[in-house]
Amino acid sequence: MMAQKQIVLGALDCFAPGFLAQGMWAHPADRTGDFNSLSYWTDYARLLERGLFDMLFLADTIGVYDVYGGSRDPALRLGVQVPINDPFVLIAALAGATSNLGLAATGNLLYEPPYLFARRLSTLDHLTGGRVGWNIVTGILASGARAFGRDLMGHDDRYDFGDEFMEIVYRLWEHSWEDGAVVQDRERPMFTDPDKVHQVAYAGRHLKMSGIHLTAPSPQRTPLLFQAGASGRGKQFAARHAECMFVNGTSRASLSRAVADMHRALAEQGRTPDQVRILAGLTVIVGETRAHARDKQEAFKAAASAEATLVHASGGLGIDLSRYPYDSEIEYSETDANRTLMDNLTRQPDGSRITIRQVAEKMSLSSRNMLIVGDAQTVADEMIAVVAETGIDGFNLARVLMPDSLEDFVRLVVPRLQEKGAYKAAYRSGTLREKLGLGDGARLAANHYGRHAGEEAVASI
């Protein structure tokens, strides 16, 4: 009999008061107003470790959602991912408060110098003992580009830039320092053997550099790599670089299609499905009984903000939804924002279109995530069935009410998953990559593109 597949589980959040469940920061029982407090996050991380979560994943946004109404004011007034703080600083603070929890964050490579970014991630990987992950994004907000004095690059051009950025950081992480370069020999004295540290260089259309990596090799060298590209060019980028991939879908059918697409893209890169973990966004409302869970859902829907949901959706789509009648259908428009979101809302498999009202009402608590509502048994059974039927490896769980959503999940759902053999009873040892059963020990897999990127060029310098 085949063993039950164990679910990979992350908590998906943002270093801001408002994330996917729009407007819930105003709920009297919600604690996200304390997001600037370190104790808020250490309590959060320790709760996740108690529930054996694989990681805390911190999304990030560079720029302001200012498309709705042509103004930044609704986002500021309603707390739509603003104010927002630096998630990498938070990872450093959480390193000492946890011992097993993976700590991953989004980093927008359009606005980072790759040489310094590589050092920051290596530093964090050292401080966490190899528990750091990086979600590679290229950004969708024109307001972010303007803040850097630029125009937003075209959709596919952003991925071309991203490939060059990755060439640089791979060379720094994987090839600048040999294993054993740090000797710490007090007698000679020699801290580092200079012959085992190599200059790396790169010259591309967008980026160029030459230098040694300033940080000695960290436990993983390259942090665990995440990506959520779902457009044609995005899938190609994800299949080349990602070890964990994020997919969105509100049904088993849509998730199955997304997984099949990613598997095809992986095959084109010479990689196999067992070399990645695919995680779907998930929102859970769990109660002691099914009726209790439904009552909670109705109460949450009443507290959520429809306007904030449209502010968020407008920024993602790149079109101002305030300009159209509330019951009008969203029509496809080519923009340089989130093309996958545009496709999902305007090109349904059955040919139907979604109205602005439906976006405001259906996405207010879970955005583009799957939503499961029920008692612990119902939630656990549904999670197991989704994994079995779609080919995903697990979920990124987004809270509705903080901390109640996660406390209820850990208290009620985790034991049910464990009873069914679908969830671990203890953490694996090792780095984040090793805990997830990926890579070559703590390092990138031997056939991963980044393991050998620029190897010949380094040897010739």
Q: Please, could you describe this protein's structure?
A:
This protein has 461 residues and is an alpha/beta fold. The chain has a single domain, classed as Luciferase-like domain (TIM Barrel), CATH 3.20.20. It contains 17 helices and 13 strands. The protein has helices at 38-50, 73-78, 87-94, 114-127, 142-147, 155-175, 232-241, 252-268, 290-303, 306-317, 339-346, 356-362, 376-390, 404-419, 432-435, 449-452, 455-460; strands at 8-14, 55-59, 102-108, 132-137, 182-185, 190-192, 200-203, 208-211, 224-227, 244-247, 277-287, 370-375, 394-398. An eight-stranded parallel beta barrel has the order 1-2-3-4-9-10-11-13, surrounded by seven helices. A two-stranded antiparallel ribbon has the order 5-6. It has a two-stranded antiparallel sheet with strand order 7-8. Helix 7 (232-241) links the parallel strand 9 (224-227) and strand 10. Helix 13 packs across helix 14. The mean pLDDT is 93.
Poorly predicted segments: none
**Structural domain tally:** 1
- Termini separation comes to 54 Å
* Proportion of residues in β-strands: 15-25%
The percentage helix is: 25-40%
Task: Enumerate the strands of the largest sheet in spatial order, edge to edge or round the barrel.
Answer: 1-2-3-4-9-10-11-13
Number of E strands? 13
Instruction: Assign the structural class, choosing from mainly alpha, mainly beta, alpha/beta, alpha+beta, or little secondary structure.
Output: alpha/beta
| CATH fold-level assignment | TIM Barrel
Count of helix runs: 17
Secondary-structure element order, N to C: EHEHHEHEHHEEEEEHEHEHHHHEHEHHHH
CATH architecture: Alpha-Beta Barrel
Q: Kindly provide the name of the CATH class.
A: Alpha Beta
Chain-averaged pLDDT = 93
Tell me about the largest β-sheet: 8 strands, parallel, barrel
